[in-house]
Design goal:
By secondary structure, this protein is α/β, with parallel strands linked by helices. It has four domains: 2-67, 3-Layer(aba) Sandwich (DNA Methylphosphotriester Repair Domain); 72-167, Arc Repressor Mutant, subunit A (Orthogonal Bundle), CATH 1.10.10; 174-240, Double Stranded RNA Binding Domain (2-Layer Sandwich), CATH 3.30.160; 257-336, Arc Repressor Mutant, subunit A. Helix content is 43%, strand content 11%. It contains 14 helices and ten strands. The chain has helices spanning 2-6, 47-52, 72-83, 91-96, 101-112, 116-133, 138-144, 150-161, 206-217, 227-240, 257-266, 277-283, 290-298, 325-342, and strands at residues 17-20, 25-27, 41-44, 56-57, 174-179, 186-190, 195-200, 221-223, 275-276, 311-312. The strands form three sheets. The chain has a four-stranded mixed sheet with strand order 3-1-2-4. The protein is flat. The two termini are 40 Å apart.
């Protein structure tokens, strides 16, 4: 392993991870950073083991990318769409960027639940809906979003939103985007009014996530961004940097009255502290409902911001966590470390 590390052998990436005792960082074997002395190195089979040993992921080689974060060529495509969401991209445009259309189709189908062209079309439709909501002329919107005829635009729009553009002046949709984090990619979603979802990208399949959002909120789900996701992006980065303890982004957490009561109690748990499932049950007036509290935690759609990671067993054991217990431990350790440094 030491030889593979010194050679920066990428073939060992994902097979083991390298912890540097002097910096508290863990890396992939291929990390381009200067290599430490062998006596300062610890090896781990999984990123979980490194995190639980107190190491944080390297920002240069991003050892958690194997858990789902997009490679550079995908980031390039996503940036192009963010910069010009109304611009149409065909297979020739992909080839001009050095990207095989089949490769893009397979990757987006696997990680976003739709082909690249379907993803891009949905992104354009979200942009078009926003323009229509601001009173733009339908013909101009169709032309600006790559459609040569009103009929083609109308068909694509109705396929996405279930109604023609002329009836959509007041229609709303949920927009989704992916955010980076030290724990792997996060998927965030927001209505025009508030944030409605934040979860780790590997928690569930994209198709299932979309179906659930459509069922709960009764509107289309398209790639994009809005003011709430922009605010969340900045606040999440500050949180993981240890510079934010409280989120200000607006929330829309829909559920049963009991679930909402539990989630509201989660929002009252102070940063850096934990509360037992039993205590949450007592606070909502159902002292025997610890298991139901656990299920409400499980159905919390807004991780980190609605801090279900701060609920643990009465014994102090972690209990459960949809994103994986290693992530729960990381979040708790992060908050405790920040609190400890401020004393």
């Amino acid at each position: 392993m030491q030889r593979a590390c010194l050679r920066r052998d990428a073939s060992y990436d994902g097979i083991f991870f390298v912890g540097v005792r002097t910096t508290g960082i863990f890396c992939r074997p291929s990390c381009p950073a200067r290599k430490p002395r062998p006596t300062h190195v610890a090896f781990f089979v999984t990123p979980t083991a490194a995190l639980l040993s107190g190491y944080r992921p390297c920002y240069r080689c991003r050892p958690l990318e194997a858990d789902g974060w997009a490679p550079d060529w995908v980031r390039q495509l996503l940036r192009r769409m963010d910069d010009a969401p109304a611009r149409r991209m065909c297979d020739a445009d992909l080839r001009a960027l050095g990207i095989a259309p089949a490769r893009a189709r397979r990757y987006f189908k696997r990680y976003y639940g739709m082909t690249f062209q379907a993803y891009h079309r949905a992104r354009r439709m979200g942009s078009a809906l926003a323009e229509i909501g601001r009173g733009a002329d339908l013909t101009q919107v169709a032309l600006q979003h790559g459609y040569g005829s009103n009929s083609g635009f109308r068909d694509a729009f109705e396929h996405t939103f279930g109604q023609p553009p002329g009836r959509s002046r007041r229609a709303a949709c949920i927009v989704t985007r992916t955010l980076e984090s030290p724990l792997g990619p996060l998927v965030a979603a927001a209505t025009p009014a508030a944030l409605c979802l934040l979860e780790f990208a590997d928690e569930q399949a994209p198709d299932r996530r979309t179906i659930e959002l459509q069922k709960v909120f009764g509107c289309a789900v398209v790639p994009g961004s809005n003011e709430h996701l922009e605010r969340l992006s900045a606040e999440i980065a500050q949180y993981f940097a240890g510079k934010r303890r409280r989120f200000t982004v607006k929330l829309d957490y829909r559920g049963t009255p009991f679930q909402r009561a539990v989630w509201e109690q989660l929002l009252r748990i102070p940063y850096g502290q934990t509360v037992s499932y039993e205590e949450i049950a007592r606070r909502v007036g159902r002292p025997a409902a610890q298991r139901a509290v656990g299920m409400a935690n499980h159905h919390n759609r807004i991780a980190i911001v609605v801090p279900c990671h701060r609920v643990v067993n009465k014994s102090g054991a972690l209990g459960g966590y949809g994103g994986g217990l290693w992530r729960k431990q990381f979040l708790l350790d992060l908050e405790r470390r920040v609190v400890g440094q401020s004393r």
